[in-house]
Amino acid sequence: MKYVPTIGIECHVQLSTKTKLFSEVDNDARGKEPNSCVSPVDYALPGMLPRLNGEAIKFAIRAGRAMHCEINAFSRFDRKHYFYPDSPKGYQITQFYQPIIGPGFVELPSGTKIRIEHAHLEGDAGKLTHFANYSLVDLNRVDTPLIEIVSMPDIHSPKDAHDYCKELWRLMCYAEVTYGDLFNGNMRFDVNISLAPEGAKELGTRAEIKNLNSFRSVERAAEYEIKRQTRILNAGEKVVQETRGWNDASGETTGQRSKEEAKDYRYMPEPDLPPINLSQEFIDEESAKLPLMPSDYRENFGDVLKPDILEILLDYPNLMIKLNQLVAREGNSGGLSEVTTENEGASPVTTGRSDTSQKGLSSRVALIANLFTSVLLAEEKSAEYLNDLPSSKDLNELAEMNEKKELSSTATKEVFLKLFDPQMKGRGVKNIAKELGLVQENDLGALQKIVEIVLAKPETQKAQDDFRNGQEKVIGFLVGQVMKESHGKANPAAVQEILRKLLTK
Amino acid sequence: MDVKCEDVRHLASLSDFSLSDQETESLKKDLQGIIKYISQLDELDTKDVEPTYQVFEMENVWRDDEILPQEANREALLALTKEEENHQIKVPKVL
């Protein structure tokens, strides 16, 4: 029988506020000693009062708006009780009944829309490390602000599950609400999967795979579960509703607990935290602070960059911001595509001073985008480089020199990399190119002189004869000789033109 | 509502308490009494009454996102725990 998989995803996003959700303690525990970012509130000592971080509310509004979600003016906190050493309070403070973020949607690059049911604010739990017969508890992560994003069951393939998680990650990074470091658990995914016969109205019994921390593992776990459940259903058996763990090494999910009791969290209103009641003005003010989102960049750069290049670049917000600055330099804040459309049918590319034309800008943006994807991202130190990108002025100059053929494509790459060199950057593109002797000779008079010198050399006589006798290919050899004579500074296209002119005279 | 020993044991297991039969029986009586007392509220019609989330009618009590020095440092807090190892709290294996 043919089954249709249905996948719902809950995603926890750690917010990058300075302090925790309920205490004035450093929220950034990266590289810090265990239990060094804690307070009596995190320890849940008797009489400690949680104090709500106002910034987390603002972050939640931005995160919600990034997913086209309604923001609920009224929201409040509840206690979710459970007993486990990762939570000294014995409960988690969360928003069970009245979350701050209402329904919305996330649009995948393919155009598929995944609806968001809601998202809520809550505190994270501590970290446990298990040993043979004891566990160690680190409370640094206790009450790091989280938003938990709950999708509707709109996902029907492992690929879409992957794309949804990735797009969420991008949205949260562009909204600047998280460090987005998946390796360190800044975003974690719980994936529930069920199968139902094609055309069935009701969903099948689902299995939930908790705590996945990469898009790839979400996709693989979903693939595995679909196969496993198909096998069970085809054998006429029933899928058990349970939580399963994912083993990344073996590529399998396994049942985690034998006793699957009905959850009993005994939710109750959190009496220590007064409710949140936001004015429309406050919500609008925060919503307006949302930076450009991937969909904005897709719209602005869609006509200039190939979709595959654009999708690679979108994984690096810094690069998109830089490309946008490049465009903004020329006063085209309205974006590239708009202006390109207006200019359609207008004058073709002009050279020299007037090449601030839209088409010139588009090709410069494409050139820089290409340098980003094919040169920068291929570098070993790319992660470091991404945090210290060249100025848009430098990049624009570099693109202009390339455009005017003052730099060959190889030389452009070389100068581009020097812009990341602490010794070289700051000197300016032109100076770097000159110092490295990479500026191409475009002066036709000067080039002709070099060509004449080469043509006068005895070792080029045979090639000249061959060319005159119709052997097209030897032009390459002659261009090479001129390049050598010019120490690589001649513009090969111009050289070839001059050679042809002189040889066919 | 009638509280059964089974309910008491369920509640105890949620909090990881182990109770003797005698304790279970005694807690059952206490809980029964508490619930009976609270149940007096059932006589009222609360259909149109807004739930009370907290009694002070405060809203929007927030603080700034600024790190403040803590009076209790790591050592002082760890000293409150029964056992520690490598600056972490040592607990019996749970899962």
User: What is the strand tally of chain B?
Assistant: 3
Secondary structure: number of strands of chain A: 16
**Can you list the strand order of the major beta sheet of chain A?**
6-7-10-1-11-12-13-14
Estimate the helix proportion of chain A, in percent: 25-40%
**How large is the share of residues in beta strands of chain B?**
5-15%
Give the overall pLDDT of chain A as a whole number: 90
The unreliable regions of chain B are none
Sheet/helix structural class of chain A? alpha+beta
CATH architecture of the domain at 1-43 in chain B: Orthogonal Bundle
Strand arrangement across the biggest beta sheet of chain B: 2-3
Estimate what percentage of residues of chain A fall within beta strands.
Answer: 15-25%
Report the biggest beta sheet of chain B as strand number plus sense, adding barrel if it closes: 2 strands, antiparallel
Quickly count the helices of chain B: 3
The biggest beta sheet of chain A is recorded as:
8 strands, mixed
What does this structure look like?
The complex is a heterodimer of chains A (505) and B (95). In chain A, strands 6-7-10-1-11-12-13-14 form an eight-stranded mixed sheet. A three-stranded antiparallel sheet of chain A has the order 5-4-15, with no helix packed on it. In chain A, strands 3-16 form a two-stranded antiparallel sheet. In chain A, strand 8 and strand 9 form a beta hairpin. Chain A has 505 residues and is of the alpha+beta class. Chain A has 17 helices and 16 strands. Chain A has three domains: 208 residues, no CATH class; 142 residues, no CATH class; 60 residues, Orthogonal Bundle (Arc Repressor Mutant, subunit A), CATH 1.10.10. Chain B is of the alpha+beta class. Chain B has a domain of 43 residues: Glu-tRNAGln amidotransferase C subunit, N-terminal domain (Histone, subunit A). Helices cover 35% and strands 9% of the residues of chain B. In chain B, helix 1 packs across helix 2. Chains A and B meet through strand 2, helix 1, strand 8, strand 9 and strand 16 of A and strand 1, helix 3 and strand 3 of B. Strand 2 of chain A pairs parallel with strand 1 of chain B, so a sheet runs across the interface.
